[in-house]
Design a protein that fits this description.
Blueprint lengths: L1 E5 L2 E5 L1 H10 L6 H13 L1 H8 L10 E6 L4 E16 L4 E4 L3 E8 L11 E11 L13 H12 L1
């Protein structure tokens, strides 16, 4: 285990186990996630370096939560799993990588992941990226599609 201190936090991290986790865990194949994967390392080198200290690959998050805006995709939260534990907790902090990115640490988490054993989650908030995939953006949900979804969910 490696001890890592960031802001007010102290972590006990198994970086090798975390790296192995990121080698084998499955990625979402939706267009919005693929747009994030394609740009993350180049657009956010400071965030990538921060996550690498924990054994995390920035381009392989467990979960992304995004909304489409006129000119960009607003990734509200990007979640990463780290094998290990939080030895001492602190307050959320920011990494300035072209603009402030909020970093939130959670002991465990409900984000879908394939991790077993002790882990914590690093969530990054406030990421905005342009659409850069060589394919059209997915069509937004229509009111009719939402209405049909609601009917199915009520059954």
């Amino acid at each position: 285990m490696t001890t890592i201190q960031k802001a007010d936090y102290v972590f006990s991290v198994d970086t090798e186990k975390t790296k192995k986790y990121y080698e084998i865990h499955t990625l979402c194949n939706c267009a919005y996630c693929r747009n994030f994967y394609a740009q993350a390392k180049d657009k956010f080198p400071k965030l990538s370096a921060f996550l690498s200290e924990f054994g995390v690959d920035i381009a392989k998050p467990d979960e992304t939560l995004s909304v489409e805006t006129d000119n960009a995709i607003d990734y509200i939260s990007i979640d990463y799993t780290v094998c290990g534990s939080i030895a001492s907790t602190g307050h959320n902090f920011e990494i300035n990588d072209h603009f402030p990115l909020s970093v939130v640490i959670t002991n465990g988490f409900a984000s879908p992941n394939e991790q077993t054993g002790r882990y914590f989650t690093i969530s990054v908030e406030n990421i905005k990226l342009p659409w850069e995939l060589d394919e059209p953006r997915p069509e937004p949900c229509t009111p009719k599609a939402n209405k049909n979804s609601n009917k199915i969910l009520k059954k």
